[in-house]
Q: What sequence folds into this?
């Protein structure tokens, strides 16, 4: 079980495009990311928290 998503795997898991992800990131509405070396990752917890905020609107 993965504990973090790459941007590509996050987008695939949540059925959004990369362009939408980056648009949400510009607006401050994307899940928080972190860097591990050169990779940008999204923790599973951050992804679930992001989904919960969408569901509670």
A:
């Amino acid at each position: 079980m993965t504990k973090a998503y790459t941007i590509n795997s996050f987008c695939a898991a949540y059925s959004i495009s990369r362009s939408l992800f980056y648009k949400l990131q510009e607006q401050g509405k994307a899940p928080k990311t972190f860097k591990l070396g050169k990779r940008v990752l999204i923790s599973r917890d951050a992804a679930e928290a992001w989904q919960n905020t969408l569901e509670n609107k």
In short: The radius of gyration is 11 Å. The mean pLDDT is 95. The first helix runs from residue 7 to 13. The chain has three helices and three strands.
